[in-house]
């Protein structure tokens, strides 16, 4: 079972939403049988009873991106759109583009700001994807990025 935490930081109305993936019937039947109902030989439960399913194959099967990967994906896509379309100009003007390589960003002073984090993410991912110019269509890049994030 996967538990997701949702809600605002400053309010008291936080909610925990359980999300169940995998074999639902096997999960529900697991705890329905009391020890006194099982034969004596089967009353001790072994390791296989307590093993959990790994999330990676489940996430891949259902095309779910982990929260950290989702943040990286959206940040990368936003920076790509900003660099390609020069919009919004207020954010574009804060980015320092390298004169040597037009697809590389010069990282500002290390901090927790969007400019610093997005510059590092952009430089890392764009070099892995071998982006040499901004002629790539946004839709194609979105599909390619999502396919790689679920692997």
Mean pLDDT: 75
Structural class: mainly alpha
Largest sheet: 2 strands, antiparallel
Computed over alpha carbons, the radius of gyration is 23 Å
Order of adjacent strands in the largest pleated sheet:
1-2
Portion of residues in beta strands equals 5-15%
Number of strands: 4
Helix content: 40-55%
Characterization of the model:
With about 150 residues, this protein is mainly alpha-helical. About 45% of the residues lie in helices and about 10% in strands. It is built from 7 helices and 4 strands; from the N terminus they run E-E-H-H-H-H-H-E-E-H-H. The strands form 2 sheets. It has a two-stranded antiparallel sheet. The two termini are about 20 Å apart. Mean pLDDT is about 75; it is low at about 1-10.
Which terms would index this structure?
151 residues; two-stranded antiparallel ribbon; 9% strand
Give a nutshell description of this structure.
The chain has 151 residues and is mainly α.
What is this structure's SSE topology?
Elements: E1 2-6, E2 15-19, H1 24-30, H2 47-50, H3 55-61, H4 67-85, H5 89-92, E3 96-97, E4 105-106, H6 114-128, H7 138-149
Antiparallel strand pairs: 1-2, 3-4
